[in-house]
Amino acid sequence: MKWFGWINVVAIILGFWVFYGAASVAVLAGWFTAVNWVNVVLAIIQFYLAYRKVGAAHHA
C-alpha cells in the first residue's frame, strides 16, 4: 500500500507539472484538473491506511 501511495505522489507531481507547464487544451483542462485532485485524495487515503496499519501492528 505504501508503494502505491508513493507512486501516486510521483504521478501528482508529474501531472501538475505537465498541466501547468504544457500548453492548455481547453477541452481537457477540467478533466486533467479533476484527475489530478482525485489522485491527491487517493494518495492521502493510501498513506493513511498503510501507515495506520504499521502503527497498529507495533502497539499490538
The value of Rg in angstroms is 15 Å
C-alpha termini separation: 20 Å
Largest sheet: none
Total count of domains: 1
Describe the structure.
- 90% of the residues lie in helices and 0% in strands.
- With 60 residues, the protein is mainly α.
- It has one domain.
- The chain crosses the membrane at residues 7-28, 34-51.
- Keywords: Membrane, Transmembrane, Transmembrane helix.
Question: What are the SSEs and their pairings?
Answer:
Elements: H1 2-21, H2 26-59
Helix pairs in contact: 1-2
Summary?
The protein is an all-alpha fold and 60 residues long. It has helices at 2-21, 26-59. The chain starts with a helix and ends with a helix.
Question: What keyword list fits this structure?
Answer:
single chain; mainly alpha; 2 helices
